[in-house]
Amino acid sequence: MDVKDSNGNLLTHGDNVHVTKDLKIKGMTKTLKRGIAIRNIRLTANPQEVECRIGKSYIVLKTQFLKKA
Question: In whole angstroms, what is the distance from residue 15 CA to residue 2 CA?
Fold first, then answer.
């Protein structure tokens, strides 16, 4: 299973990524701003989603809004 970011680069478990668009997260009061770095992503069963940790909570993000750092 190949997981690709918005630019077509392959993502692997433990990669660092940047957010390409401001994202409002359901259940959280703050938004993820464009350009914020997210470290140590985890791949999920769906090739279009990755799991990451923001603060103390884990969220699932779509790969179309991420680019490899």
Answer: 14
